[in-house]
């Protein structure tokens, strides 16, 4: 099943977010996670600069990539797996009137078939002049909507 890079996922889809089990993201080492888990990393920023694509926080289309397959792309470490519905991301977009928020197909350049399921959430980087509080609230709301799998 070929996906079109750069195309938004449909609302009926679910994505996987792998989160390092650090207290910064998962207080007390167990859910719920907090909004820091959706903060773009320095790697997300450098990838954006390298590719000229918007900054994207890595997630995986669960209809194309299983949890174990996604973990195989990550470095060693203790990762927790969270599911998030694309429909809920779109609801957050509406509630916060945040037009840049989107889940986009972003397949990895890798021969493994599961690489096709890689996606990214755009719009989680704060642009100059935008409210820090609003971005924290958006990320916190996404974290609340995640479900441990």
Report what the structure shows.
With 149 residues, the chain is α+β, with helices and mostly antiparallel strands. The chain has one domain (14-148). Helix content is 27%, strand content 21%. The chain contains four helices and six strands, in the order E-H-E-H-E-H-E-E-H-E. It has a six-stranded antiparallel beta sheet. Helix 3 runs antiparallel to helix 4. The protein starts with 13 loop residues before the first strand and ends with a strand.
Mean pLDDT score: 94
| Structural class by sheet pairing and helices | alpha+beta
Number of helices: 4
Residues in helix, % = 25-40%
Which geometry do the CA atoms define?
globular
Overall radius of gyration: 14 Å
Could you tell me the strand content as a percent range? 15-25%
Distance between the termini: 24 Å
What descriptors fit this protein?
single chain, 149 residues, alpha+beta
């Amino acid at each position: 099943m070929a996906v079109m890079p750069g195309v938004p996922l449909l609302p009926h889809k679910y994505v996987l977010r792998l989160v390092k089990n650090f207290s910064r993201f998962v207080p007390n080492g167990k859910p719920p996670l907090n909004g820091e888990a959706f903060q773009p990393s320095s790697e997300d920023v450098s990838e954006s600069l390298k590719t000229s694509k918007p900054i994207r926080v890595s997630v995986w289309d669960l209809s194309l990539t299983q949890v174990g397959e996604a973990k195989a792309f990550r470095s060693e470490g203790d990762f927790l797996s969270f599911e998030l519905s694309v429909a809920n991301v779109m609801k957050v977009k509406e509630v916060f009137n945040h037009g840049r928020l989107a889940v986009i197909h972003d397949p990895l350049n890798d021969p493994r078939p599961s690489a096709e399921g890689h996606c990214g959430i755009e719009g989680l980087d704060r642009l100059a002049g935008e409210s820090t509080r609003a971005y924290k609230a958006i990320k916190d709301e996404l974290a609340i909507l995640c479900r441990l799998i």
